[in-house]
Amino acid sequence: MSGDAKTNARSGDVDTIDKMTVHLEVEDLEVVAEQPVDLQITSSNFNEVFGYQFTSRLNGLALNGVRLAVFEMNDTHESLPEVDRMSASWASDKLVSATDGEISFTIEFIPTRSGSLKELIQMNSEMTKAEANIGSGMDVVNIDLSFRSEVANEGVNILYQNEPNPFKGITNIEYELKHAGLVTFTMYDV
Q1: Do 73 and 90 form a contact (C-beta atoms < 8 A)?
Q2: What is the architecture of the domain spanning 19-154?
Q3: Domain ranges (residues) in the chain
Q4: pLDDT tens profile 162-183
Q5: Strand 139-148 versus strand 131-134 pairing type
Q6: 142-165 tens-digit pLDDT
Q7: How many CA atoms lie within 13 A of 21 on its CB side?
Q8: Computed over its alpha carbons, how large is the radius of gyration of the chain?
Q9: What is the tens place of the pLDDT at every residue in 59-90?
Q10: 77 near 88, Cβ under 8 Å?
Q11: N-to-C CA span, the chain
Q12: Coil, helix or strand for 11?
Protein backbone atom coordinates (compact mmCIF):
# COMPACT_ATOMS: atom_id res chain seq x y z
CA MET A 1 0.00 0.00 0.00
CA SER A 2 1.30 3.40 -0.93
CA GLY A 3 -0.46 5.35 1.83
CA ASP A 4 -1.76 7.97 -0.60
CA ALA A 5 -5.47 7.03 -0.43
CA LYS A 6 -7.99 9.84 -0.02
CA THR A 7 -10.57 9.29 2.71
CA ASN A 8 -13.41 11.20 1.06
CA ALA A 9 -14.31 13.30 -1.96
CA ARG A 10 -13.29 16.49 -0.14
CA SER A 11 -9.74 15.28 0.51
CA GLY A 12 -8.35 16.88 -2.64
CA ASP A 13 -7.41 15.87 -6.13
CA VAL A 14 -6.74 12.28 -7.14
CA ASP A 15 -3.48 11.78 -9.01
CA THR A 16 -3.80 10.48 -12.55
CA ILE A 17 -1.52 7.90 -14.11
CA ASP A 18 1.17 9.70 -16.09
CA LYS A 19 1.12 9.43 -19.90
CA MET A 20 -2.25 7.63 -20.09
CA THR A 21 -5.19 9.23 -21.85
CA VAL A 22 -8.46 7.80 -23.17
CA HIS A 23 -8.93 9.48 -26.54
CA LEU A 24 -12.48 10.14 -27.71
CA GLU A 25 -12.61 11.06 -31.38
CA VAL A 26 -15.14 12.72 -33.68
CA GLU A 27 -15.11 13.77 -37.33
CA ASP A 28 -14.53 17.52 -37.71
CA LEU A 29 -17.55 18.52 -39.80
CA GLU A 30 -18.73 21.85 -41.15
CA VAL A 31 -22.21 22.37 -39.73
CA VAL A 32 -25.00 24.74 -40.73
CA ALA A 33 -27.11 26.65 -38.21
CA GLU A 34 -30.44 24.99 -37.34
CA GLN A 35 -29.58 21.75 -39.22
CA PRO A 36 -29.27 18.87 -36.69
CA VAL A 37 -25.92 17.10 -36.51
CA ASP A 38 -24.87 13.80 -34.94
CA LEU A 39 -21.45 13.60 -33.30
CA GLN A 40 -20.48 9.93 -33.61
CA ILE A 41 -17.92 9.39 -30.86
CA THR A 42 -15.30 6.71 -31.44
CA SER A 43 -12.03 5.88 -29.70
CA SER A 44 -8.73 4.30 -30.65
CA ASN A 45 -8.05 3.16 -27.07
CA PHE A 46 -11.31 2.69 -25.16
CA ASN A 47 -10.08 -0.38 -23.28
CA GLU A 48 -11.25 -1.71 -19.91
CA VAL A 49 -13.04 1.52 -18.95
CA PHE A 50 -15.28 1.64 -15.85
CA GLY A 51 -16.42 5.23 -16.37
CA TYR A 52 -15.57 8.78 -17.32
CA GLN A 53 -16.65 12.36 -16.79
CA PHE A 54 -15.95 15.72 -18.42
CA THR A 55 -17.37 19.14 -19.24
CA SER A 56 -17.80 20.43 -22.79
CA ARG A 57 -17.98 24.09 -23.71
CA LEU A 58 -20.64 24.55 -26.38
CA ASN A 59 -19.90 27.55 -28.60
CA GLY A 60 -22.93 27.45 -30.86
CA LEU A 61 -24.43 24.01 -30.21
CA ALA A 62 -27.65 23.08 -28.40
CA LEU A 63 -27.89 19.54 -26.99
CA ASN A 64 -30.72 17.52 -28.57
CA GLY A 65 -30.07 14.00 -27.18
CA VAL A 66 -27.75 11.02 -26.78
CA ARG A 67 -27.90 7.56 -28.40
CA LEU A 68 -25.97 4.53 -27.23
CA ALA A 69 -23.88 2.09 -29.20
CA VAL A 70 -21.06 0.13 -27.52
CA PHE A 71 -22.21 0.99 -24.01
CA GLU A 72 -25.38 2.36 -22.51
CA MET A 73 -25.38 6.15 -22.45
CA ASN A 74 -28.47 8.30 -22.66
CA ASP A 75 -29.88 11.69 -21.70
CA THR A 76 -29.52 10.90 -17.97
CA HIS A 77 -25.71 10.84 -18.36
CA GLU A 78 -25.36 14.53 -19.18
CA SER A 79 -26.72 17.81 -17.95
CA LEU A 80 -26.71 21.42 -19.04
CA PRO A 81 -25.79 23.34 -15.87
CA GLU A 82 -25.18 26.46 -17.97
CA VAL A 83 -26.36 27.46 -21.44
CA ASP A 84 -22.92 27.07 -23.04
CA ARG A 85 -21.67 24.01 -21.09
CA MET A 86 -22.55 20.33 -21.02
CA SER A 87 -21.41 18.07 -18.21
CA ALA A 88 -21.21 14.32 -18.94
CA SER A 89 -20.72 11.37 -16.60
CA TRP A 90 -20.93 7.65 -17.36
CA ALA A 91 -20.11 4.60 -15.25
CA SER A 92 -20.51 0.83 -15.56
CA ASP A 93 -20.40 -2.06 -13.11
CA LYS A 94 -18.04 -3.92 -15.47
CA LEU A 95 -15.04 -3.13 -17.67
CA VAL A 96 -16.11 -1.91 -21.12
CA SER A 97 -13.99 -1.93 -24.28
CA ALA A 98 -14.62 -0.78 -27.84
CA THR A 99 -12.75 -1.70 -31.00
CA ASP A 100 -10.76 0.97 -32.83
CA GLY A 101 -13.18 3.17 -34.80
CA GLU A 102 -16.36 1.57 -33.39
CA ILE A 103 -19.06 4.14 -32.55
CA SER A 104 -19.21 4.29 -28.76
CA PHE A 105 -22.08 6.76 -28.54
CA THR A 106 -23.71 9.55 -30.54
CA ILE A 107 -24.56 13.02 -29.25
CA GLU A 108 -27.20 14.92 -31.21
CA PHE A 109 -26.84 18.71 -31.44
CA ILE A 110 -28.66 21.51 -33.20
CA PRO A 111 -26.15 24.20 -34.22
CA THR A 112 -27.17 27.75 -33.34
CA ARG A 113 -24.54 29.05 -35.76
CA SER A 114 -22.56 27.66 -38.68
CA GLY A 115 -18.94 26.56 -38.37
CA SER A 116 -16.65 23.58 -37.85
CA LEU A 117 -17.31 21.26 -34.92
CA LYS A 118 -13.76 21.90 -33.71
CA GLU A 119 -14.74 25.56 -33.20
CA LEU A 120 -18.10 24.76 -31.60
CA ILE A 121 -17.24 22.19 -28.90
CA GLN A 122 -14.25 21.76 -26.59
CA MET A 123 -13.80 19.21 -23.79
CA ASN A 124 -12.43 20.59 -20.53
CA SER A 125 -12.61 20.37 -16.73
CA GLU A 126 -14.42 23.66 -16.07
CA MET A 127 -17.26 22.09 -14.05
CA THR A 128 -16.56 18.34 -14.02
CA LYS A 129 -12.93 17.21 -14.04
CA ALA A 130 -12.12 15.43 -17.31
CA GLU A 131 -11.00 11.94 -16.29
CA ALA A 132 -11.68 8.25 -16.83
CA ASN A 133 -11.39 5.15 -14.65
CA ILE A 134 -9.74 2.12 -16.25
CA GLY A 135 -8.60 -1.39 -15.40
CA SER A 136 -9.40 -3.63 -12.47
CA GLY A 137 -7.79 -1.08 -10.13
CA MET A 138 -10.10 1.68 -11.43
CA ASP A 139 -7.03 3.82 -12.12
CA VAL A 140 -7.76 7.50 -12.78
CA VAL A 141 -6.46 8.62 -16.20
CA ASN A 142 -6.92 11.59 -18.52
CA ILE A 143 -9.64 11.77 -21.19
CA ASP A 144 -9.69 14.07 -24.21
CA LEU A 145 -11.60 14.80 -27.41
CA SER A 146 -9.78 14.85 -30.76
CA PHE A 147 -11.15 15.91 -34.11
CA ARG A 148 -10.50 13.91 -37.29
CA SER A 149 -10.65 15.55 -40.70
CA GLU A 150 -9.99 14.50 -44.25
CA VAL A 151 -6.65 16.32 -44.06
CA ALA A 152 -5.71 14.39 -40.91
CA ASN A 153 -6.60 11.12 -42.62
CA GLU A 154 -4.19 11.99 -45.45
CA GLY A 155 -1.39 12.22 -42.90
CA VAL A 156 -0.23 15.54 -41.50
CA ASN A 157 1.63 16.58 -38.40
CA ILE A 158 -0.78 17.13 -35.48
CA LEU A 159 -0.01 18.73 -32.11
CA TYR A 160 -2.66 18.12 -29.41
CA GLN A 161 -3.44 20.30 -26.41
CA ASN A 162 -1.08 19.70 -23.50
CA GLU A 163 -2.59 18.15 -20.36
CA PRO A 164 -3.04 19.26 -17.72
CA ASN A 165 -3.44 22.85 -18.84
CA PRO A 166 -2.53 24.99 -17.05
CA PHE A 167 0.26 23.02 -15.44
CA LYS A 168 2.96 23.40 -12.84
CA GLY A 169 6.11 21.36 -13.23
CA ILE A 170 4.90 18.52 -15.49
CA THR A 171 2.60 18.31 -18.52
CA ASN A 172 1.95 15.75 -21.26
CA ILE A 173 2.11 16.79 -24.91
CA GLU A 174 0.83 14.32 -27.49
CA TYR A 175 1.42 14.58 -31.22
CA GLU A 176 1.14 12.63 -34.46
CA LEU A 177 3.70 12.76 -37.25
CA LYS A 178 3.08 12.23 -40.95
CA HIS A 179 6.49 10.52 -41.11
CA ALA A 180 8.62 9.11 -38.29
CA GLY A 181 11.44 11.40 -37.24
CA LEU A 182 13.02 13.47 -34.50
CA VAL A 183 10.96 16.12 -32.76
CA THR A 184 12.14 19.21 -30.93
CA PHE A 185 9.89 21.05 -28.45
CA THR A 186 10.74 24.54 -27.30
CA MET A 187 8.87 25.95 -24.31
CA TYR A 188 8.96 29.49 -23.04
CA ASP A 189 7.96 30.73 -19.59
CA VAL A 190 6.43 34.20 -19.69
Answers
A1: yes
A2: Sandwich (2.60)
A3: 19-154
A4: 778 777 888 888 877 777 777 8
A5: antiparallel
A6: 999 999 875 444 556 777 777 787
A7: 19
A8: 17
A9: 999 988 887 666 655 455 555 556 688 888 88
A10: yes
A11: 40
A12: helix
